[in-house]
Amino acid sequence: MAMALSCCWLSACKNNAPAPVIYESYSRLKTGNYWIYQVFEVDSAGNGSPTAEYDSCYISKDTMIRGNTYYFLTSQNGGAGGYTCERWLRDSLSYLVDDKGRKWFSSEPQPGPFAAFPLQEPPSPDTLAWIEEGMEEGYATTAVPAGLFLTLNCRRTITIRQAGSTAQQVRYAHRRYALHLGIVSETMPFLPESTHFREKRLVRYGIQ
Asked: On the CB side of 119, how many CA atoms lie within 13 Å of its CA?
């Protein structure tokens, strides 16, 4: 009888155990997956004009690093193709992280930036520039040539200040991710002093 009660208790504990949390993928990291983007010129008012330039991004290979599988995201334009291009990446719970432990995205609400660092090459030796990256709250609808997508936005904030001055300039860059798809639009690297920027927008993709 005691053994039967014990078995029932163990069975009840097992049945009442919380289900493991499953985090949905916003990166679609798998060798062979690809994304093709059209480049747009965006002026200071936010108006985008399509160009004849395209960029192909794809997962070229994978490898084991410290017991975890990482995938290499490469671009036709190399590192200029985007901030996450030419990096080893993996999904880690709700985060997208690289092989150095740097976070690039989170599908969960964040109280503040998850990355902060100085700009390596400021516009001039007398310029101080600081970068922060974090998630904006809530979803937004993003229109690109491939269609309309509900996206989460990782925003890069670039704060520029001249040495000895309290006046500062703030610029923003965006990476917008769609569930089960990856990046649908991204501000491409630009000079902080520029009044315009380039943005790549998804045209088509092939994912498994």
From this structure: 24
Distance in angstroms (rounded) separating the CA atoms of residues 35 and 55: 8
Mean pLDDT value of segment 50-78: 96
Model confidence pLDDT, tens digit, residues 138-182: 999 999 999 999 999 999 998 888 777 777 888 899 999 999 999
Residues 6+ apart with CB under 8 A from 98: 70, 84, 87, 88, 89, 104
Contact 27, 33 (CB under 8 A): no
Cα angle, residue 165 at apex, residues 162 and 169 outer, rounded to 5° = 55
- Residue span of the structural domain in which 49 resides: 23-206
Neighbours of 127 (CB within 10 A): 16
Please report whether residue 1 resides in a domain.
Answer: no
User: Does a structural domain hold residue 96?
Assistant: yes
- Residues found in the chain: 208
Does a structural domain hold residue 17?
no
What CATH number does residue 183 fall under?
A: 2.40.360
Taking the model in full, what pTM does it have?
0.84
Calpha distance 164→193 (Å, rounded): 18
Helical residues (DSSP H) of the chain, grouped into ranges: 2-16
